[in-house]
Amino acid sequence: LFMLYLVATPIGNLEDMTFRAVRVLKEVDLIACEDTRHSRKLLQHYGISTRLTSFFEHNERDKGEKLLVELRAGKDIALISDAGTPAISDPGYRLVRRCHEAGIGVSIVPGPQAAVSSLAVSGLPTDRFAFEGFLPARSGARRDRLTALLSEERTLVFYESPHRLAATLADLAGLCPQREVVVVRELTKLHEEICRGSAGELAERWRAEKVRGEVVLLLAPAEPVEPELDLDTVLRAALEAGEPM
Ligand code: SAM
Question: What are the TM regions of this chain, as residue ranges (predicted)?
Answer without folding.
Answer: none
